Amino acid sequence: SKFVDERYSAIVPDQSTQGTRLRIHPREILAYDQDTAINAAIYYSFNAENSDTRFFEIDRSAGYVIVKRTIPEDELLQPATLVVKATQYDNPDRYALSTLTVSRPGTSLKDLQFLQSHYFAGVLESVPLNSVLLTVITNRHRDKKLRFWLDNYENIFRVTPSGDIVLQKSLDFETQDSYVFQVHCTDGFMNATAQINVSVLNVNDWDPRFRYLQYEFFVPDMPEGQLDTVEGE
């Protein structure tokens, strides 16, 4: 057996649903028996089942490919290569292999990276625990398989699966007024790193207050009272 073309490609249409037929380039998948005298019939299949082929189905007789099930938004974020097998009915040992590269519009095999190499945040030392201080974003923000982690101060900050940097321990300007650390991300194959700089902003620990906790006034025949406040030093 032999394929007419060595490789094929297809773009999965937006909003594709079960049964959507892929438009394959440079032409529909086609193989033939090189022994033209016999010209044995051929059937098509995927050479191996994997996480990518589960979304597609190839017609055994005609070789066209359809979407087998709705593809979630966080799947097929990079082009997938499916190995297509053409086998002769009269002799299963006589077969040929070709590849079909399937991708979504706008996807490519680009390196994983953060949209910024440095992130900065100015945070009041009084900010409540579990507050989101900033969010780091990659060029593959739709990919739910990404995993984030911090290289330092993990007892003070944490990073969520969506890239939020969250405060988990109270800040104190007098103890430490800045934190510099790195956030890492991986998709299992490629890694990315960005630097985070958190500046702690001082809050006045000596807010204005009354000189006395309680004041009493007797209105008859008494002049107006006066309240004094004092600012701590």
TrEMBL record:
A Pfam family this protein belongs to?
Cadherin
| Gene Ontology biological process | homophilic cell adhesion via plasma membrane adhesion molecules
Domain called Cadherin: residue spans: 4-210
Origin species: Graphocephala atropunctata
InterPro entries referenced in this protein's UniProt entry, alphabetically: Cadherin-like_dom, Cadherin-like_sf
Which PROSITE patterns does its entry note? CADHERIN_2
Q: Under which name does UniProt file this protein?
A: Cadherin domain-containing protein
The GO cellular component terms are:
plasma membrane
